[in-house]
Amino acid sequence: MGRENIAMKEEFEKLAAAGKLTRQQVDALVALTESGYCYHRSWGFGKIVSMDAVFSRFVIDFQSKSGHPMDLAFAAESLKPISSDHIYARKVSGLEDLRQMAALHHLDLIKLVLQSFGGRATVDQIQQVLVPDVIKDDWKKWWEGAKHELKKDGHFLVPAKKSDFIIFQVKEVSLQDRLMGEFRAVKGLKARSGVALEMLRNLSDVQDTAALAKEVIPALNTEIVTYQRTQPSIALEGIFARDELRDAVGAAPIPGEVSAASIWLQETGRVGAIIEPMPASKHRRALLSFKETMPERWADALLAALNHISAKLAAEVAHALISGGKLDALKELLARLISQHQASSEFLLWLARERSDSFADILGPEVFRAMLTAMERDQFNEKRSNKLRDYILDDQTLLVELIGSADLEVIKDLTRALQLSPCFDDMDKRSLLARIVKSYPAVQTMISGEQTRQDTSFVVSWESLERRKTEYAELVQKAIPANSREIAVARSYGDLRENHEYKAAKEMQKILMRRKSELESQLVRARGTDFANPRTDVVSIGTEVSVTDLEHQQPEHFAILGAWDSNPEKGIISYLTPVAQALLNRKPLEEVEVSLDTSKKRYRIDSIAPYKTA
Question: Strand 600-610 relative to strand 543-549: parallel, antiparallel, unpaired?
Fold first, then answer.
């Protein structure tokens, strides 16, 4: 004990003799004085700056209370002495040294932290102590490197769970002994598979890999058998861990052991349900093993599973289908489920995240309509999910992209559907509606309630309706897929900024998608007819009208037919034209005035007859 501390102890004893302190408090105060540092459970770490014997108090610099005075008796009861080697004290006395240690000697720094907390601490505790004072940069990257070193060093026990303690032990244990100890201690195939994978990652530092594999592989085989039928997902994880370990050490398969193929053969129709519970890192491996086992049926099985799995797994399944040459089948499934409003919210969430050029011909306003249906359906399910709703709200461009080429009437219908949807609260609806208005200002009045809904259907002949349907089929089945292929080829040329082929193909994509949207809107609203038995007491759709141009006293003839039936050379006009609109519902001998672009004409109706096809 230094002279200064001896002097302070004498002062404490004088205060005890005066009845201001107890004997136990004197010992506690001496310990605090000798360490020079302390810890308070509310104010945290502090440095004892001075002791005032006259006023019987310490002056302490806490992290949040600099120069804080504290009564000695209270300090003795509430403060814990901290040694000068403690990580808290070292941060005050030698922060730069700690930063140097963090850069060059990971294990020394972690050892210091662990010893400061009695030889053990969780990852979160270590992070709280070191970040941001000691480690300013990417903690995650730093910890991954440090953890790798910890697992190799024989003085540290690193648990599988992040919430468990990392323990420093003075006696060194070899990596192989530690791993084998962990393998024997854990219970269950899933835990043992995890230890086996850790063995695989550290195999280059294990002294006797053959001995390790000789014990681990048979033990895994025994457990796999018990899980094969009851929990096939865990059995597959065990099989993958066993096979990877065996391949790494060059061991031969054991006759009669359960293989991945045997799991799939007994569970052919449950591929999605089996892979879903597995870690995401194993999904691709599981899909590959399924494909290898079912070379003829794998694609059909994956397509059947797509609408019943998570968006994350759907991404892997879609990748497997596309890389396996099944893109067209995937798109056909998507288009059918969307048109029938049967697509799940998870499947649509995957599509929303994907949004690649390969699916440009599918991505449109009907996708958003299907999303609303899926979310409404989810509200009645026990396992409700808000992931799709949250994604729609968070992704500022999704809704705008989906409606980008849509006809105004389609946008109005979508706006009404959104307004009536129970999936979004009022504030969220306003946010989404604002995005629609930004692209389509014309719907503003509808949103604010200044217009009422009107019938927007129109009449067409069956022949013209069939022509539009044929155009739509050609567009969807040939033109758009061909354009998607052109875009894919153009992308492969590199540097999209100077890629004229890519820009031209993307411009054509906009034109094709705009026409597709127009046709969809028109076909939904079109009402086919053969114009049979029209009214002839007045001008109506499906009649031939003879009129006289009163200015020139010239006779003219009009056949008034459907919206898509105009043929001026044959005197056929659409009932939507200004001339037809002026004549409709008028009787013979009535005079009508027609306003054209730059002039007006007056006609007298002479006769009305049913239209006769040529």
Answer: antiparallel
What SS3 class is residue 154? coil
Which residue, chain included where needed, has tokens 């009437």? 409
Looking at residue 614, its pLDDT comes to: 59
CB 238, CB 189: distance < 8 Å: yes
> Helix, strand, coil proportions of the chain in percent (round to 5)?
60, 10, 30
Q: Which tokens is 198 given?
A: 């850790």
How far is 115 from 90, CA to CA, in rounded Å?
13
Give the residue among 35, 17, 37, 36 at the shortest CA–CA distance from 26: 17
The two three-digit tokens of residue 244, written as one number: 């990877």
Q: Which class would CATH give 3-82? A: mainly beta
Please name the CATH architecture into which domain 543-610 falls: Roll (3.10)
**Per-residue confidence at 497, pLDDT binned at 50, 70, 90?**
low
458-526 has the same fold as 3-82: no
Residue for token digits 């354009």? 483
Contact (Cβ atoms closer than 8 angstroms) between residue 16 and residue 26: yes
Q: What is the pTM of this model?
A: 0.58
* Average pLDDT, integer, range 592-608: 86
Cβ–Cβ under 8 Å, residues 519 and 468: yes
Domain boundaries, the chain: 3-82, 88-159, 326-443, 458-526, 543-610
Question: Minimal CA–CA distance to 37: which of 85, 98, 96?
Answer: 85
Tally of CA atoms within 13 A in the half-sphere of 352 that contains its CB: 30
Confidence of residue 376 (pLDDT cuts 50, 70, 90): confident
pLDDT at residue 98 in the model: 94
Residue-wise pLDDT for 468-486, tens only, equals 999 988 988 888 888 888 8
H-run or E-run covering 336: helix 327-339
How far is Cα 90 from Cα 66, in angstroms, rounded to an integer?
18
Largest pairwise CA distance in the chain: 134
3-state secondary structure 405-465: CCCHHHHHHHHHHHHHCCCCCHHHHHHHHHHHHHHCHHHHHHHCCCCCCCCCCEEEEHHHH
Neighbours of 539 (CB within 10 A): 26
Whether the CB-CB separation of 598 and 604 falls below 8 Å is answered with: no
Q: Which residues contact 220 (CB under 8 A, 6 or more apart)?
A: 189, 192, 193, 196, 238, 241, 242
CATH of the structural domain 458-526, one choice from 3.40.50.10710, 1.10.287.180, 2.40.50.320, 3.40.30.10: 1.10.287.180
Name the band, by pLDDT with cuts 50, 70 and 90, for residue 449. Answer: low
Beta strands in 14-160 (DSSP E): 37-40, 44-52, 57-62, 68-71, 80-82, 120-121, 156-157
Give the CA-trace dihedral at 564, 568, 570, 576, to 10 degrees.
40
CA distances to 580, 586, 612 from 540, rounded to whole Å, are 9, 8, 14
Tokens of 604: 């007298």
